[in-house]
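Review box. Two proteins, two foldings.
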Amino acid sequence: MLATTLDRRVGRSNAATRNDALIGRSAQRAGWAGIALERAARDLDAAKGADGNALSGLAEIVRDEATRVSNLAEEIESRSSAPRSRPIGPASARRMGREFS
């Protein structure tokens, strides 16, 4: 009977570890998406449309989305029982005074 109880505990531990790994990986990927959007916004700031007008309005929208995605990455990470100690997106970098390039 004791062996059955131990096996269940090990199974739960393995499931929790796997769950934390999946949460961490999805948070990391969402963080990367936020970084990619932030870089796209930076490129759009320097670009002009076919009509010669600046694309800064579009860049601002993309930058807002980058912040949202970065915040989602942090929210995903907060669901893990083993949180990361490093930033995972552009919003984290701005709070830490760093810039992704």
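Next protein.
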Amino acid sequence: MQALGVETPAEVEPFMDAYALSDITAARDALEHEEDRVADRNLSGHPPYLGTYPDDLVIGWGGLTGHLNMIRVLDEDVNLGPVIAAALPLEAAFRDLVTTIDDLAAEDDSQA
């Protein structure tokens, strides 16, 4: 974005901080390898799942807000609340960013 002369939206840093503290990567890995761990095949360094046969994916919704805040994969709870809360303001920031980039592109086209 610096090459375009556009500032990074202020909302990005809190999101990146929340993402760094979250278990998003662990959740993705757990979901990706869930079937293999239960079946004890293609483990690629992941331990086999030794618990009881897992129920359907458990999803936790925030009481009054109704926002997703947790998932459970193979008996492991993954807290997603903080990173989701930090991601919500990004929508408006990125819409503004797209508008700015479109305006810059239109300026370049008019000068060509």
